[in-house]
Structures are given as structure tokens and as C-alpha cells.
Amino acid sequence: MAVRNVRTLGDDILRKRSKVVEKINDRVLTLLKDMAETMYSANGAGLAAPQVGILRRLAVIDMGDGLINLINPEIVEATGIQEVEEGCLSIPGKWGKLERPARVKVKALNEYGEEIVITGEGELAKCLCHEIDHLDGILFIDKVTEFLEV
After folding, report:
1. Which domain CATH number covers 29?
2. Nearest residue to 95 (alpha-carbon basis) of 144, 41, 44, 43
3. 6 domain-assigned
4. Model pTM greater than 0.90?
5. Which residues are known catalytic residues?
């Protein structure tokens, strides 16, 4: 496992749409492990593959309840609205308020190729939406209603 460099605002890769992972192989599994190590070393709650320079639909999340590996995640249901405060490892020093769904249902594959469905509310819903946005080249600053002083 290795800590990878996190790409920051201004790097074009953050604005590109990621490609579907067709096959879960050793490269994908190593990337997921590296992404998790990178996220933990930066004290983040989530990280998407484009943030480490890879345009694949992969994300890792840990909201304190253990690591979740997401391969080809997609939001299949979103309900309610919550106002949240967000930051991003790719945009250090910037925080903002924005609206996210209060509850989401996400379908993905795990590292074993098994289909999983995660229902997230509150902070987990926010994190799932944030990381999936990264896979579509969308950054939280695109949705900010108010920037916050750090």
C-alpha cells in the first residue's frame, strides 16, 4: 500500500467523468487500498479515484464505522434536503454550505465483486454524494451557496 498524491483544484482530471470499472483485478484492489491509506493519512472521510489521478469509478469512505469500498457506485434514490458544510481534500482550506439529499440509497460493487446497497442519512448521505460527484467531475464548490471562513 502507498499514500498517493492528492490532486488539487486546477488539475484538469478533477473535472473529467470517470470510466466504469469493467473488471475487478489486482490493479483495482491495490488502488482501493492505496486510496484508503491516502484518505486516512490526510484525515479524510472519503476519497474518489480522480483525486489520486485515476479516472475510474472508485471511491472509499470511512465515517468512523469502518472502510467502505465502492466500485461503480450510483445513487438510485435520494430524498429530502439537508443543508451541510463541506470541505474537500482536493480543495484545501475551503469550506462551504450547500444542500444535499438528507437520505440516499447507493448501489455499487464491493471489493469482492458483490453488489451492495448502502442507505445513508445525514453525514453518510453527504459523503456518498460528495464522492460520487467527484466521479462525474463535479466539485462541492460548484454547489456552494455560501463560502465559510476557515
Report:
1. 3.90.45.10
2. 144
3. no
4. yes
5. 131
Half-sphere exposure of 71 (CA within 13 A, CB side): 19
Spatial CB neighbours of 105, under 8 Å, sequence gap ≥ 6: 75, 76, 77, 78, 117, 118, 119, 120
- H helices of the chain, where? 26-41, 123-135
Average pLDDT for 22-48: 98
Domain-embedded: residue 30? yes
Residue that is written with C-alpha cell 480522480 in the block: 50
In a domain, 2, yes or no: no
| Tally of structural domains, the chain | 1
3-state helix, strand, coil split of the chain in percent (to 5) is 25, 35, 40
Examine the pLDDT at 1 and tell me if it is beyond 90.
Answer: no
Give residue-wise pLDDT tens across range 112-140: 999 999 999 999 999 999 999 999 999 99
Cell of 63: 465515517
User: Which domain covers residue 104, as residue numbers?
Assistant: 12-148
Backbone φ and ψ for 88, nearest 5 degrees, come out as -155, 140
Amino acid 116: pLDDT: 98
